[in-house]
Amino acid sequence: MNNPFQEQLLKAGLVTKQQVHKAQKDKNKKNKQQRSKKQAAPNEVESKAQQVAKEKARQDRELNQKKVEQARKKAISLEINQLISANRIDRSEGCEVAYNFEHNGKVNRIYINDEMKQQVVKGSLGIARIEGRYELVPKATAEKIRQRNDQRIVLFDTQEQTENEDDAYADYKIPDDLTW
């Protein structure tokens, strides 16, 4: 026995050997439980650290996906700008006719000549937006641009728009050469 107090109690006859042995056993159990709790606490810390690491990894993946998506959109935008710049139709000479069109809910104006206007109306030319201005492009180029980004192109198809049967003005066709 290591405890001098227990030895004195045994000599005085106040306790028996079994009681001393039981007290030591209980003390050892308590110490062992405390040690296991101390070891369990680091396990909890480790599990929390692992959860934090998993959450950070998930956030990093999402951020990386956003960066990849932004880079892809930027590359597409640069490709569209290159397509428009390479295939635009020059409108510098004799383009005095103002052609109004709707794009993204706004009415815009572009100056073209009569021949270009007829091609736009027929659908063989399209209007594309580049750096805040509009340019005329051939239909094939306009289709390529539309496949990449629908917001950057105004393309006039030759297909007739579906007419509403209840429209009271269905019999009155609007002329294509009407200027507003």
Name the quaternary structure. single chain
Q: What is the total number of structural domains?
A: 2
- Class from secondary-structure proportions: alpha+beta
- Beta-strand percentage? 15-25%
Largest sheet: 3 strands, antiparallel
**Poorly predicted ranges (pLDDT <50, ≥5 residues)?**
none
| Sequence of strands across the biggest β-sheet | 4-3-5
Determine the number of helices (DSSP H or I, runs of at least 4 residues): 4
Task: Say how many strands there are.
Answer: 5
Q: Which sequence of SSEs, written as H and E, runs from N to C?
A: HHEEHEEHE
* Shape estimate: rod-shaped
Description:
- The protein is an alpha+beta fold.
- The protein has two domains: 1-87; 90-155, no CATH class.
- The protein is built from four helices and five strands.
- The strands form two sheets. It has a three-stranded antiparallel beta sheet.
- The model has no long low-confidence stretch (mean pLDDT 82).
